[in-house]
Amino acid sequence: MPGKNTGQFHYTSLIMSEDQRDKYIHHKLSPEEHKQVESSMSSTKQDQESIAVELGVRDAIEEIERVKIKATVENFEKQGSPYSSRPVRKYLAIAASLALLIMAGIWILTPSASNEELYLAYYQKYPNNLTPITRSDDQGVDLRSEGLKNYERGKYTAAITNFQDYLEKSNDHGTRLYLGLSLLEAGNSVEAVNVLQDVVESKDSLLLEPAQWYLALAHLKNNNIESAKSGLLGIVNEKGSFQKKAQTLLYQL
Amino acid sequence: MEKVYFIYRNEFIHWSMNKYGISENTALDDYQDSITILFEKIINGSIGEIESSLKTYLFGIGKNRIRQGLVSAERKEKHGDNLAEHYRFLSTNNEANDIYLRAKEATKKVFETIGEPCKTILRKFYFEKLSMQEIASDMNYKNEGVARTTKKRCLEKIRDNFIIPA
């Protein structure tokens, strides 16, 4: 091991491919491969040192994130169940739920899980990724911005009205996506299908992936399983960022 | 997620109290620990291949936790044992183990304030266990190589916060 911090720290292994190294850190190698790497690494100080650093970083981040999850779980308990007659501080409960929405959901449920359960397990609120429009001479821009603010705050009925008013004068697919998402959040999954379908058909490359994913979820909510499957299959084939979730959900249907 | 928490809560508590004779408070602690582990496993994809139901899986975690009588501090210890078991070079090489501990400590200190994109990329790689290709796609990097270089720079940022002993 080097005695002090001098110069570049090496994260490139002398004995492993980058992929193999990543899998080693993730503890995803087969037992044989794992042993092989360990034994060959014993003669390579550079690898030992850099992997020791990465394992330290990994375990620290795991602990930090585990504490956050535990806090969220404990918070659920403090708020009480919104699904019973116990008193609920709704906004805090929503905040706790939002904290968990960061969780990417590879969710395994029993094959007999209801469509509603699957929908609840896979649905996560999509963040506001729209670029703000800054034209000051366009009154419609305010409606759009207001709609996005309402969407972020969970005021979906207001957001729907804002987006619908804005779309009367403008054919903006980004706004249409958030109209569809707001409808879904407000429980109007039938209308959400129509709106999200329009966004998918626009083939806007920046909006296509979320539109396809939420359209499939809307079909699932409506118990329209064949359409949900067909949408999910498209997502899996296109290999976008929703691929993994789509694949797992497809397996469950 | 919140709904899932409450779907299984009462059943788990009654089941564990009846089956293992533990108090309601202990049962609740075990449930919260178990569901924390479950959520963590969902995030990092490590239950992706399990074909049992979510409930069976959750109760399986709970059963182990209750049997082992683990509490928070003991879990850390156990985690350490697993680490030593899986990464033998750390248990056989004091220098490597020292570096591991220093890196861990430094990360705990700086992670929340390290800034973006480091916080996200490190979280995705080390906690969610995403591949660099998946990270590149999620974070809109041009390719895997760019993501890898970014991660490397982020590790260097952490590395600047501790000293390797002479």
How would you sum up this structure, described in words?
The complex is a heterodimer of chains A (253) and B (166). Chain A has 12 helices and no strands. Chain A has 253 residues and is mostly helical. Chain B is mainly α and 166 residues long. Chain B contains 9 helices and no strands.
- Low-confidence segments of chain B, ≥5 residues, pLDDT <50? 70-81
**Helix-strand pattern of chain B, N to C?**
HHHHHHHHH
What percentage of amino acids of chain A are in beta strands? under 5%
Count of DSSP helices of chain B? 9
Shape of chain B: globular
Poorly predicted regions of chain A are 1-9, 85-112
Largest sheet of chain A: none
Quick one: how many beta strands of chain A? Answer: 0
Q: What structural class results from the helix and strand content of chain A?
A: mainly alpha
By DSSP, the count of extended strands of chain B is 0
- Order of H and E elements of chain A: HHHHHHHHHHHH
Count of alpha/pi helices of chain A: 12
Largest interface: A-B, 66 and 72 residues
Largest sheet of chain B: none
Helix content of chain A: 55-70%
Q: Which whole number gives the mean pLDDT of chain A?
A: 77
- Mean pLDDT rating of chain B: 82
